[in-house]
Amino acid sequence: MHALLNNPAAASAPIALSCGEPSGIGPEIAVKAWDNLRNTCPFVWIGDPKHLPTDTPVVHIEDLSKVSDVAKTAFPVLPLAFDGSVSLGKADPNNARGVIKSIETAVDLVKSGHASALCTAPIHKKALIDGAGFTFPGHTEFLAHLAGVDRVVMMLASPALRVVPTTIHIALADVPKALTADLLRETLEITDHALRTQFAIDTPRIAIAGLNPHAGEGGAMGQEELDWINDLIQELQQKGHDVSGPHPADTLFHATARTRYDVAVCMYHDQALIPIKTLDFDRGVNVTLGLPFIRTSPDHGTAFDIAGTGQANPSSLIEALKLAQQMTQANSAAP
């Protein structure tokens, strides 16, 4: 286990919530989430208070040990001064360095034990590129860089389902080339370890989806299952992992099937994300596995079109904060 994980002292610390893109719905849903969770799940928002809704009862925080008490009556903020304007619905690149600083500050707080977990609001990559020369493919890769790790795994989790895509943001035509035995093995091992240490599942049951329709149907619809996927599953079973498959993806996500596993590891992006977004769109949470700290995020973007209108649904952020708290508690209890 990473040295930063399994730290019982950090379990009582608040969650650090980075502000994300301030021109999107992030500030609005952060305040809504605080109003919902103020007595049960304390967190500190890291950003420029000028981006918050004007009627927000803000208290500036210097000592994170005070967050829990403050949160009962006011919105705890660790203030950072941003250079850009308040422009709801349109990103100002001048805010880019502030957004990056918010993420870096949150990571530092978690790594030092002053925060128990990291929750990140959605960023706008183009604004970060335009305003700060951001060179990372996305949020997750930046976090991996800050954590000093080479390989992380994306999980989407909700009360109805957990899924892990093995390949993520690549064209469907490129999946068979990118999908290797080493990649799938590493994805499964990271997932298994995280379920044990961060989700308190002693023996994780992992269902593996086939790459091809009907999991290849004995070679009639593709060879990958016969060529190497079946062998890899047998190898992991012999090592003591509770893995099964490859399962036809079209029968893996109905109600009865979902009772048979703790997570479904899928071969590509849409194979994993379509079922969870269909089953539980508003409560899906993005979890990064393989970091030396806990990181969750709402499973949606900046939603510029509704920023500042009051229409933004905070459900995914609420679930992300609650899951971060649950993972912290499970992690602190892990041997």
UniProtKB/TrEMBL annotation:
A GO cellular component entry from the record: cytoplasm
Gene3D superfamilies on file: Isopropylmalate Dehydrogenase
GO terms classed as biological process: pyridoxal phosphate biosynthetic process; pyridoxine biosynthetic process
Cofactor remark: Binds 1 divalent metal cation per subunit. Can use ions such as Zn(2+), Mg(2+) or Co(2+).
Protein family: Belongs to the PdxA family.
Function (record text): Catalyzes the NAD(P)-dependent oxidation of 4-(phosphooxy)-L-threonine (HTP) into 2-amino-3-oxo-4-(phosphooxy)butyric acid which spontaneously decarboxylates to form 3-amino-2-oxopropyl phosphate (AHAP).
Pathway: Cofactor biosynthesis; pyridoxine 5'-phosphate biosynthesis; pyridoxine 5'-phosphate from D-erythrose 4-phosphate: step 4/5
Gene: pdxA
InterPro entries associated with the record: PdxA, PdxA_fam
Sites where the protein binds substrate: H139, T140, K277, N286, R295
Annotated source species: Epibacterium ulvae
Major localization class: cytoplasm
Documented EC number(s): 1.1.1.262
Assembly information from the UniProt record: Homodimer.
The reaction(s) this protein catalyses: 4-(phosphooxy)-L-threonine + NAD(+) = 3-amino-2-oxopropyl phosphate + CO2 + NADH
Amino acids binding a divalent metal cation: H169, H214, H269
Note: The active site is located at the dimer interface.
Subcellular location field: Cytoplasm
Keywords of this entry: Cobalt, Cytoplasm, Magnesium, Metal-binding, NAD, NADP, Oxidoreductase, Pyridoxine biosynthesis, Zinc
Protein name: 4-hydroxythreonine-4-phosphate dehydrogenase
Cofactor(s) needed by this chain: Zn(2+); Mg(2+); Co(2+)
GO molecular-function terms, A-Z: 4-hydroxythreonine-4-phosphate dehydrogenase activity; cobalt ion binding; magnesium ion binding; NAD binding; zinc ion binding
